[in-house]
Amino acid sequence: MAIADWPISERPRERLLRFGAKHLSDTELLAIFLRTGIRGRSALDLARELLTTFGSLTALLSASPSSLLESPGMGEAKIAQLLAVQELTRRTLGEQLATGTVLTSPRAVGDYLRLTLVGLNHEVFCIVLMDAQHRVITCEELFRGTLTQTSVYPREVVKCALHHNAASVILAHNHPSGIAEPSQADEILTRSLCSALALVDIQVLDHFVVATDRIVSFAERGLL
């Protein structure tokens, strides 16, 4: 049955306007975004199938255009809209970081890094640079590698931090495999970078490992 044939009180769009977006499920919100279904399947059916196929909303939003095109009901227009939503969200979080401090918005930092790094099919190492008040100066991608590893050079990290006159930094890299657990090599690298930056009086506040549905904080794990 098409959503247009449902009782008005049960339609996702009408429920959103009446009760607010937070009262709708991921499936219902996605159905509103899709707007229309295909023959024999409503927008809600398609939304449910997409979430089942990709495993989560995060995985869906970070999926490649080619994989999305393989899904029923997903054409170039809807894929472009999804990419635009993801970028708008990333920019919104970036603005929050630029106007506040990292210490008052740690979740925003994690969300920003997840949107920046999730979905890449190669490892990327980034650094968030902050001033003495822990306000974000900028976020830079320093190194790019392969599916399983990337080479990080402490000298270049220190050089970047000094160039921006940073007082502290947050390190981050992704695991394209989808497993967020830090490796032994990650721990060794983090200790090396902490030592190198300490020599020029720059503090490492955290190191995030980003995977599709999870982000691990070295600081929370007591690994710094």
The gross shape turns out to be elongated
Mean of all residue-level pLDDT scores:
84
First-residue to last-residue Cα separation: 55 Å
User: Strand pairing plus helix content: what structural class?
Assistant: alpha+beta
Can you list the strand order of the major beta sheet? 2-1-3-4-5
Please summarize the sheet with the most strands: 5 strands, mixed
Summed up, the helix count is 10
Q: Give the tally of β-strands.
A: 5
Task: Give the helices and strands as they follow along the chain.
Answer: HHHHHHHEEHEHEEH
Taking Cα atoms only, what radius of gyration do you get, to the nearest Å?
20 Å
Overview of this protein structure:
The chain has 224 residues and is an alpha+beta fold. It is built from 10 helices and 5 strands. The chain has helices at 12-19, 26-34, 43-54, 57-61, 65-69, 76-99, 106-117, 154-163, 184-198, 218-221; strands at residues 124-130, 136-144, 168-174, 203-210, 215-217. The protein has a 5-stranded mixed beta sheet with strand order 2-1-3-4-5, sandwiched between helices. Strand 3 (168-174), helix 9 (184-198) and strand 4 form a beta-alpha-beta unit. The radius of gyration is 20 Å and the shape is elongated.
